[in-house]
Amino acid sequence: MTIKIAFISSSTSAARTACKRLRKRHGQVSLKHADVAVVLGGDGTMLRTLHKCFGLNIPIYGMNRGTVGFLMNEFKEANLISRLERAKQVKLHPLLMKVQTVSGAMETAYCINEVALLRQTRQAAKIRVRIDGKIRMKELISDGAVIATPAGSTAYNLSAHGPIIPLGAELLAITPISAFRPRRWRGALLRDSAKITLEIQEPKKRPVSAVADYTEVRNVKSVTIIQKKDISLNLLFDEEHDLEERILNEQFIP
User: Fold this and answer.
1) Domains of the chain, with CATH numbers?
2) CA-CA-CA-CA torsion for 66, 120, 105, 213, nearest 10 degrees?
3) Containing H/E element for 222?
4) Annotated catalytic, 43?
5) Pick the catalytic residue: 43, 192, 213, 238?
6) Among 17, 87, 91, 133, whose Cα sits 20 to 30 Å from the Cα of 99?
7) Helices (DSSP H) in the chain: which residue ranges?
8) Residue 169 has what pLDDT?
9) 10 Å Cβ neighbour count for 81?
10) What number of CA atoms fall less than 13 Å from residue 192's CA on the CB side?
């Protein structure tokens, strides 16, 4: 049985050239009619493709033609079909960000990696943190905060000195960015069923933006984040590219 493949590439010449050769060899269909999507590029291209695949219920296999490629397999043009047939599947559940702006507008966006709140001006942000409706921190003064999934815990969250979360741990990380008060607070680990609400104090004087992967909303008043367990995204990995193993290894890099 022929596998119908949708090839998607980044804008780099290396990714486009590889995509052209693979399409010539294996054919090309749209995402809507594909049995599998093959992504050529880096993690940014993979994230954009994952967003396009909401509701399509097709597996997604990446090959690294980018920089870091944490979510990508090694690039090889040979034996693609057999690699797809042998690949292991990892399920990801996105976060849903609901934002109320200072003007009263409501915005929503999904993300795979993280939601990041970032100060827009020279002044630090003041953020009140609620978990499941209960105030857990009256005032966090910082450059912002990151709410990360396990898949995104090795991205911005790790750069902000947040914890790496193994896949399947059913946890989310909330990590401050350059916390000023409480100065020694390093963040928290929460159940992935938690409803996280971040309320911006003095939002006009200390404006804050909210970013879900690559969707940005500026001048926010409050942000609510929940994980959508009813949405599953299926990533494929070669047996030798064990994502769990890569996440574990990251925790022991000096």
Assistant:
1) 5-93+232-250 (3.40.50.10330), 95-227 (2.60.200.30)
2) 20
3) strand 220-227
4) yes
5) 43
6) 91
7) 13-26, 43-52, 80-86, 156-159, 243-250
8) 86
9) 13
10) 21
